[in-house]
Amino acid sequence: MSKHFIETENKVIADSLKIRFYPIAVKSAKGTRITDQDGVEYLDLAAGWAVAGIGYGHQRVSNKIKEQYETLSFTSQLSAPEPTMVSLAQKLLDITPGDFPKKVWFGHSGSDANDCIAKLVPLEKNRSRMISFMGSYHGQTMGSLSLSGHPAQSRFIGSGNVVKIPYPNPYRPLFGDPKRLTDQVIDYLENEVFNTVCPPEDTAGIIIEGIQSDGGLIVPPADFLPRLQEICRRYGIHLIFDEVKVGLGRTGKWFSFDHHDIVPDAVVLGKSLGGGLPISAVVARKEILDVGTGIHLFTTSGNPVSSTASLETMKIIEDERLIDNARVNGEYFMTLLKQLQEKHEIIGDVRGKGLAIGVELVENRVSKVPAAEKTAAICYRCYELGMLVFYVGIHSNVIEITPPLTITKKDINLAISVFDQAFSDLEQQRINMDRVKEYAGW
Fold it and tell me: Do you know which InterPro entries this protein is assigned to (predicted)?
């Protein structure tokens, strides 16, 4: 059944809308498990690119969606608002730091939310330039694409007002000295970038992922984000955090920047915000989002059904203590992965916070040559063994582990055993590489 469906899907769905790692066709999902159309169940470590933060098919969200749709299926909040979107905005204002006046903007995805940043921040500051980071992934619309520094967007020429600088990667330090990584990147920004191509007085904002997600689950040095905030404050530059993938509890706190006592000027949210329904948000200084009337809006923004799902999702995160679960079980997962690293030479690095974890695979631990094809093989073999996981990174060699925050230690133990089997099968050449090449992912 799955094979027939995939053949049909290939005939009618555009390739530009696909990124595939194995031939799965989904029938249903519940909690941390996905069932395909042949009735095979899989442990899901991807959560649909981190969307299913509270797991799949949560009954509380299901009940709220049904009730809301039957009461008010839709109103365009642009012109005829209702209370749900306002309540959600108030909740988002409550959990984001900053004692300055803030407001909330709503959209449908991380892409249109980062488009909001690309348009409104330069307009509000009356400064033309923006700074982002190499390896960053902020979206696929032209504004968010322009802010991005990922190979997935490199075929397009975005806006010329964005300057990209190196992200501080402790495993692959661009400037050569991992012990001085923060100093070197900050020095490059302040003494090279500001003095040559991007004067600070012309720079409106710097947008960053607290953990660079699609760039390879890269965790910057602990002192980097505070130093970056200090630079922004000194020059009057807005500091924007893209929390689309790692926000809302995934790192063991509400946001990745909460680990560093950072107060951003704007926070971008998406993916898990709607419990599976499409919704995104920007929480920012009032002056950024009030720069003009009707200049970045969409007819279905903040629609009542998605807003209701989002409100209930936030309550579930709190009621079920999923932030604590992410922290505790994330540490447990990392410990077991590092034990696997000792066993399998291909594992070059294990890194992350909470349940945002990256496992980087290399041909050789000394040369650190990325093992892209072998990474694809591991993901494919995990699928054959009953577990779903994707890979990311600018070299396509980082296994991304972003499971539902509801994952248990029992699930994690199962995941480790599947990984162990997959790595052993790779080492013993028991993986069909011809099949792997059919599903090359990135």
Answer: Aminotrans_3, Aminotrans_3_PPA_site, PyrdxlP-dep_Trfase, PyrdxlP-dep_Trfase_major, PyrdxlP-dep_Trfase_small
